[in-house]
Each structure stands twice: as structure tokens, then as C-alpha cells.
């Protein structure tokens, strides 16, 4: 679609993650950064100057000004989760396509309001889970789908933790119930749950049961938790997410014949050098066991990439918006389905914690 005009993005707020997306938007060949709005004109202007953004970028002293700019095609929303419903619905009602930072809502009821507004106004929706757009991710899916090498998927574990320090724990919006009340479960648990559903081809589990030992801050916000997930056909999964331990981005997927592992799934270590890698091994490799080893050495698969995963996300979203804008194609709904299923599982984990770690059935 190189013959179509680039999609013009407006951004609501000057959150830290917005820096990454501003650069991604200016890099993607089918996107352009058109406007940034903050709660004050001075803050928006300072953000543009500090990060060397194009002088042509419009700066606004309110979010409404960005949403009401007739030349903005799509809105990226990195605001606190508690504000997502208000601003995503406003954007959709103004005919703006919505790229919404994760977690997308405080609960599935809030997300449904957003998705209903997007559908009613025929605008594209996508959440900001970047890693699923990296070319490595599709190669990993190919490995998981290889019946000869991997067999049938039986179990997956994901772990995403980091220790942001005392200032974060005191002052971050992630610690405030009214702004981002899902805490670690929403911030990093979202990635864990999405990775599990991705590996399971987005088949919802039958039930979840949070692990005893969830840690809350003084305001009642989750700062460390984990859960198990069960499927009707016997597949299972576990995850752990936390703001209290050393940084870890792990996936382990076990099949009847093979295993897939990587420890940088949300952000490849070497992406800035143009590639990402993962490891897999199989019983088919047992004939190649080196002397002194008890199992085959894992195969490392290197996946080269032209862009970083944030650019791939913007590029894919902008392409979908171009299809709607120029070819009058209906918005692609699969991204809404992925987001809603992730939110459903997240809600169930939170419900299990609040009910004393009881098993919670997933109702779609």
C-alpha cells in the first residue's frame, strides 16, 4: 500500500512509553506523527523538544484537542488504565482508529465499552502488545506447530518480573488503585497471559486458580502474583509476575516431542542489531547427543528483522487503518478478540485472588 498516504497519529499524554512509540511512528514507512497532547501546552511542547521530534508535530494543551483534530487518523493512548474507557470511546466516536496501551481496561466490562464504540464507528482497534509483531514470534509459532519435532503442546510457563525500586513503589501510577489498579498483574501479567494464549492458539482455558501468596501494597494493589490455568483437554499453564524480583522475561513451552524456550520474549536482547533468537530441542535430536551430555544441545534459531517490534506494530496497525480508510474494508476484528480473551483471563485471576485463591471458571 505504498501508494496510500501515511496514517497520521495523535498521541494522548507524554508517558515514558510514548517516547518509544513516537520514534516508532516516525520510523514506520506508512505512518507519521501529527500531534501530541498533554494536560498543559508547555508539557507537550517540552516533550517534543526534549526528544527531538519533528518541528511539524502539532502540540496541544489538552487531550480533547488531539481527538478533535480533523487531520488525525489514529490515536495512540498510553494514559493510565483508569482513563482508557473515557478516551478510547471519545476517540472512536470522533472516527479515530485506536491503538491502546496495555492493560487495555480495568476489567472486561470496560473493554467491552471500548470495543462497542470502535465497532459502532467502524474504526480499527489494537492493543499495544509489541512482542507479538516481531518476526521471531511467527517463527516460534511455526516451531510450536511442527508435529514432527514439537508434537502436541501440553504445558507452558511464563514469567515476567522486574524490581523498579522504591521510588516506583511509592509514586508510580501502577501503585495507585484509581489510575492503574491492576498493578503487576496488569503491567507484566498481561504479557504472561497473552503469551500463554498465543501458544494455545487463543483457546480460552476452562478455569484459573491464583497461587496463594499474592502480595499487595498498602493501597491494595497487586505487586506480585501467579496463577495456574487449565484446559478441558488436559493442557495446562502457569505464570508468575512481580515488581519485587530481578528482571526476567521467560517462556518455556513443552510438547510431547519437543521444547521451546526463550528468556527475552517481551523485548529481544539483540533487536537493535537486527535480529531476535529462540531455542528449541526435540527427541528427534537424540541421535546427535555429544559425549558427556544427557540430552541434545538446544538449537538456536536466529530471526533477522528490518525493524524493531514497536515499528512492526505501528506498521501493521497503520496498514489495517489504510485498508479501512482507502479501500473501505471493514476493520479487522482479530485484534479485539485477542485483547478481550487476555482481559477475561486477567479478570479471572484477579477474581480468584479476591475469593481466597478459589478456582474460577472462565465464561466468555
Automatic annotation (TrEMBL):
Looking at the record, the residues that make up the Gfo/Idh/MocA-like oxidoreductase N-terminal domain are: 7-126
A molecular function (GO) term = nucleotide binding
Q: Which residues form the GFO/IDH/MocA-like oxidoreductase domain?
A: 144-260
Q: Cross-referenced Pfam families, in alphabetical order?
A: GFO_IDH_MocA, GFO_IDH_MocA_C3
Q: Which InterPro entries match?
A: Gfo/Idh/MocA-like_OxRdtase_N, GFO_IDH_MocA-like_dom, NAD(P)-bd_dom_sf
Enumerate the SUPFAM superfamilies for this protein: Glyceraldehyde-3-phosphate dehydrogenase-like, C-terminal domain, NAD(P)-binding Rossmann-fold domains
- Source taxon at top rank: Eukaryota
Q: Which PANTHER family match?
A: OXIDOREDUCTASE FAMILY, NAD-BINDING ROSSMANN FOLD PROTEIN, PTHR46368
- Which family does this protein fall into? Belongs to the Gfo/Idh/MocA family.
Under what name is this protein listed? Answer: Gfo/Idh/MocA-like oxidoreductase N-terminal domain-containing protein
Amino acid at each position: 500500500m505504498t501508494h496510500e498516504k501515511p496514517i497520521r497519529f495523535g498521541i494522548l499524554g507524554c508517558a515514558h512509553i510514548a517516547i518509544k512509540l513516537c520514534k516508532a511512528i516516525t520510523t514506520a514507512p506508512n505512518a507519521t506523527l501529527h500531534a501530541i497532547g498533554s494536560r498543559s501546552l508547555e508539557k507537550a511542547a517540552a516533550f517534543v523538544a526534549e526528544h527531538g521530534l519533528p518541528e511539524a508535530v502539532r502540540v496541544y494543551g489538552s487531550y480533547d484537542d488531539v481527538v478533535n483534530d480533523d487531520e488525525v487518523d489514529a490515536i495512540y493512548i498510553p494514559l493510565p488504565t483508569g482513563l482508557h474507557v473515557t478516551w478510547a470511546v471519545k476517540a472512536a466516536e470522533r472516527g479515530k482508529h485506536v491503538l491502546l496501551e496495555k492493560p487495555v481496561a480495568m476489567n472486561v466490562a470496560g473493554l467491552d465499552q471500548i470495543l462497542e464504540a470502535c465497532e459502532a464507528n467502524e474504526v480499527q482497534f489494537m492493543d499495544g502488545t509489541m512482542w507479538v509483531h516481531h518476526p521471531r514470534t511467527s517463527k516460534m509459532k511455526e516451531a510450536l506447530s511442527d508435529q514432527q519435532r514439537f508434537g502436541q503442546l501440553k504445558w507452558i510457563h511464563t514469567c515476567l518480573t522486574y524490581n523498579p525500586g522504591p521510588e516506583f513503589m511509592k509514586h508510580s501510577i501502577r501503585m495507585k488503585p484509581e489510575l492503574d489498579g491492576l498493578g503487576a498483574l496488569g503491567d507484566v501479567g498481561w504479557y504472561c497471559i497473552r503469551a500463554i494464549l498465543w501458544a494455545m492458539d487463543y483457546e480460552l482455558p476452562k478455569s484459573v486458580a491464583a497461587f496463594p501468596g499474592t502480595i499487595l501494597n498498602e493501597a491494595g494493589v497487586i505487586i506480585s502474583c501467579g496463577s495456574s490455568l487449565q484446559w478441558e483437554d488436559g493442557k495446562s499453564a502457569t505464570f508468575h509476575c512481580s515488581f519485587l524480583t530481578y528482571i526476567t522475561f521467560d517462556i518455556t513451552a513443552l510438547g510431547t516431542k519437543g521444547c521451546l524456550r526463550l528468556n527475552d520474549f517481551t523485548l529481544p536482547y539483540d533487536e537493535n542489531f537486527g535480529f531476535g533468537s529462540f531455542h528449541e530441542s526435540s527427541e528427534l535430536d537424540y541421535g546427535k547427543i555429544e559425549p558427556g551430555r544427557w540430552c541434545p544441545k538446544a538449537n538456536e534459531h536466529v530471526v533477522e528483522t528490518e525493524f524493531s517490534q514497536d515499528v512492526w506494530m505501528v506498521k501493521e496497525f497503520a496498514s489495517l487503518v489504510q485498508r479501512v480508510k482507502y479501500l473501505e474494508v471493514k476493520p479487522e476484528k482479530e485484534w479485539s478478540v485477542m485483547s478481550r480473551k487476555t482481559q477475561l483471563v486477567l479478570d479471572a485471576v484477579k477474581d480468584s485472588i479476591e475469593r481466597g485463591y478459589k478456582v474460577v471458571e472462565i465464561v466468555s
